[in-house]
Sequence to fold (132 residues):
Amino acid sequence: MASSEIFHCSVVTPERAVLECEAKFVALPAWDGEVGILKGRAPLLCKLGIGRLRIETAAGTQVLFVDGGFAEMLDNRLTILTEDARAPEELDRQAASANLDAARGLTVTDDASFEARQKALQRARTQLRLAE
Fold:
């Protein structure tokens, strides 16, 4: 991979730096849809949703589950700050399945409870897909 095609990518949670690498392409789950990042992208600050983060490097493609947060692309440096970031092998399929069942059972009484239920469903479904 030519060095002119790469940019720095960092994924950080409150507990730890999850990933520091040189990337060729990153697809991240913004709150309103997937966003693709290449070197030379205009400055960007966006709110993350719950979903799959895909990072293409010289060594291959890495995938992480991310749970909200923010992403900033500035001067060919992508910084992703998220509440949770885990590799598929760190996800527990049984726990995700139990969380999906629990989310389906949540009672909706107002807009806030509806939003909480939707997020719990999306979180559990995404973890199940990535754990397979």
